[in-house]
User: Fold this.
Amino acid sequence: MNALDEKIRKSILQFQKNEITEHNIYKKLSTLEKNLHNADVLKSISGDELRHYTIWKKYTGQEVRPDSFKMFFYVFISKIFGITFGIKLMESGEENAQDAYEKVIQVIPEAAKIREEESSHEKELINMIDEEKLQYIGSVVLGLNDALVELTGTLAGLTFALQNAKLTGMAGLITGIAASLSMAASEYLSTKSEGGEKNPIKASFYTGMAYVMAVSVLITPYLFLQNYVLCLGLALAGGITLIFVFTFYFSVVKEISFKLRFVEMASISLGVAGLSFIIGLAVRRFLGVDI
Assistant:
């Protein structure tokens, strides 16, 4: 077997390993899923992966063991962050295999059909999965975005107006709790007036919890540290981290650009914080506040 053939064989063996690994992942997830519709979809995808593995096996003539770590990792991720996120994250990692597929297709035309099924049929099945939490992702976005923009601005302004970490933390905490209740109530009324399939109570819960989570991250430094400048820096770093994590999750689930959305959200939050910082200094100077 020449060098090119050996490279192709290695590629096919890797395809085999991926197929049998994902077969087991989907099979395991189907047994854990309580929603019968979702379980059926996962079983169908699992069957496709096993069929692809069998096709590749015809060309290599050998069995391949699944990747145990990958199985554990994606099942764990799916349990924590939801099935849709877990499997879309897993499937996005296969994009790097396109060059290898092109080379294999030149030798094995049947590979083109497998790639087509991987890129279209299975994606259609994945998009059929119905997760309740994804129905309310808009409510989470509302709560998180509003908290990050409003509270980073509030904290930046209060930090330099009061120049006292404890007072700023207390004022920010009161503002944050009040705002979270207000946002939850507004989301309840908005969802109820729309009259769609979303439950108004659940929508308000997701909005309120997202707001509270952001408040907790931003306020924590002020409750334990005394250097107000350091507190503001840590709060902003926490906000950017929240934006990064949520934007990554959202971009995977919705299959949109991570970079553009992250830059947009981070720019707005930091821009508002910067403007509020200037306002805080101006208020302190012109009103003669000295605490």
